[in-house]
Amino acid sequence: MPHLLRQNLLLPAPPTVALHDPRTHLRHLPPAYSNAQTPYSRDKDFAPQLRYQLDLPKKPKLRPCKVIFVGDCAVGKTAMVNRFCYDKFQSNYKATIGVDFELENFSILGHNFSLEMWDTAGQERFKCIAGAYYRNASVIVATYDMSKRESLEAAKKWLSSALNYNTAQKPLVFLVGTKADLLTKEEFVRMERIAGLAAAEVKAEFWSVSARSGYKITEFFQRLAALAFETAVQQQLKVLQATAKEQTTQTQEKSQKFDLRNYFGSRSGKQKSGCAC
Predict the structure, then answer these.
(1) What is the pTM of this model?
(2) Cβ–Cβ under 8 Å, residues 24 and 104
(3) Which domains can be identified in the chain, with CATH numbers?
(4) Mean pLDDT, 10 residues at a time, the chain of 277 residues
(5) CB atoms within 10 A of CB 107
(6) Which of 163, 177, 202, 248 is the most exposed place for a label (fewest CB within 10 A)?
(7) What biological processes does GO assign it (predicted)?
(8) CA-CA-CA-CA torsion sign (263, 268, 274, 277)
(9) At what angle do helices 127-134 and 149-164 cross, to 10 degrees?
């Protein structure tokens, strides 16, 4: 028995398991990259009404949010996704063939919310194929290489193409500059100024990131997920309110019909009985 006790004492302690990943557990609305360069919420937190609605017994049923990444070949779309999902960066470039898919789960205000991230190929020959994956996107991320000015103009064209496949809804739009680590400070400032104007033109929220260094990658995806969650909840609440209003209207119409039947039924009975009133 003492021998067994000594063996047990020598066993390594069980590894501590984190209760949650702080990158994907959000309790507050993350800030924009720049409040001056976003068409979306500049508030420091989710709206009180949103929190109130989420605390009600009837919870909104949220579907996975479809996010598509568009832009030229080799601008860093895949690198962005891999840095956030796997916290890794591969310097050897491999072109995406067709489309890649990643699923990332978040917990936002205690509610499960998933991002379906569709990383589309940037080669022109795959454009017709990628178009099939653009439909029903809730978020469009147009990416460009900050070290290549021409990729910014191309990103605007890719974005326009993606929006043409989503005319039935109004997706969230982000314009994201990648490879920020390749620029000098002066180049970085100049490119941000140019890209900021482009973002305002296409009504997108602007970000600068680096997959190599990890600069602003987590903050960007947290912001994206939070805004998508907020939009999805608001849309679900509108559906619930419209359904409740329709049910109320139907109930009132049935009640009115019932009252009219009673009224005419009583009048008919009185006439048959010979009542003069």
Answers:
(1) 0.80
(2) yes
(3) 64-238 (3.40.50.300)
(4) 42 46 94 95 90 83 93 93 93 69 94 93 61 88 97 95 86 97 97 97 98 97 97 83 60 59 58 54
(5) 14
(6) 248
(7) protein transport
(8) positive
(9) 50
